[in-house]
Sequence to fold (113 residues):
Amino acid sequence: MMNKKIFQNIINKKTHSKIIFQDEKITAFHDISPKARIHILIVPNIFIKNLNHINKKNLNVLTYMLHMSIKIAKKEKIHKSGYRIIINCNKNGGQKIPYLHLHLLGGEKLKNF
Ligand code: 5GP
Fold:
């Protein structure tokens, strides 16, 4: 099931996925298949399909996702060693789940592109 319901179920606590942080705007949880020692996904609680659906009205959601990712990086103590933030968009960008999400990766030296 690679659809938006995966993340909606996590946000609505209908799965056993461990939520790291949640407030009225965003939810953060561990990626089920981590690509680094720390791999956290940050999603907006309101449904946005991908970056192409960001507009002036909802831009604050994206800014907030970024802001909270940086906060989480600090809480996870990976901010000094460094980390990477990725947002995939559509097929060529490698987006598999059609629900906007930000990858926070760190805790080890990441490979370059
Ligand atoms: P994308 O490739 O769409 O940018 O990233 C989707 C991410 O969601 C992948 O890194 C994948 O491992 C993760 N993922 C897929 N299904 C689940 C799930 O059921 N739970 C969690 N926590 N992560 C998932």
Notes: The chain has a mean pLDDT of 96. Residues 34 and 40 are 8 Å apart (CA to CA). The pocket of guanosine-5'-monophosphate is lined by residues 6, 17, 29-33, 88, 94-97 (CB under 6 Å). The longest helix spans residues 59-75.
